[in-house]
Amino acid sequence: MALADSARGLPNGGGVRSPSGGPLLTPSQSLDGGAGRRSGYITIGYRGSYTIGREAQADAKFRRVARITVCGKTALAKEVFGETLNESRDPDRPPERYTARYYLKFNFLEQAFDRLSEAGFRMAACSSTGTCAFASEQGGPADDKIWTSYTEYVFCRD
């Protein structure tokens, strides 16, 4: 006779199901009992900026993404990104601890998204914020505007 979901430690007595039809698990639980892939969250963040000339001309100047940051459990980040993860800002972090100080050695968001997808993660949420300043305040042409933004993408693996 199978154990009830509540007896196995599943949330809500097993009454709530994931979109795939399986039991809804908390981030500390795993579908395979911990023998394989860990469940959890990884957040990817980046800052972007661009300049728009007079009266929003079509020649906006985009700057490349300078750094993609990685936040989450150390073991998960290392599993997904491997050697492309720059750990120099937090080199001795234990695997079970969380960090917000890692970043990637590449600058392509799509590459980070591909690695997360291949590791079984799906995007759970995203958020972006932006500000604007006149370029003259930054030493540029008086009519130009400099826009900066910060964007985060939250990925989840059940």
UniProtKB/TrEMBL annotation:
Superkingdom of origin: Eukaryota
InterPro entries: H1_KCTD12, H1_KCTD8_12_16
Cellular location(s): Cell membrane; Cell projection, Neuron projection
Region feature Disordered, mapped onto this chain: 1-36
GO MF annotation: an example: identical protein binding
Main localization of the protein described in the UniProt heading: membrane
Domain KCTD8/12/16 H1: 40-157
Example GO biological process: regulation of G protein-coupled receptor signaling pathway
GO CC annotations, alphabetized: neuron projection; postsynaptic membrane; presynaptic membrane; receptor complex
Keywords per UniProt: Cell membrane, Cell projection, Membrane, Phosphoprotein
Pfam families: H1_KCTD8_12_16
PANTHER family: BTB_POZ DOMAIN-CONTAINING PROTEIN KCTD12, POTASSIUM CHANNEL TETRAMERIZATION DOMAIN-CONTAINING
Protein's UniProt name: Potassium channel tetramerization domain containing 12
This protein's encoding gene: KCTD12
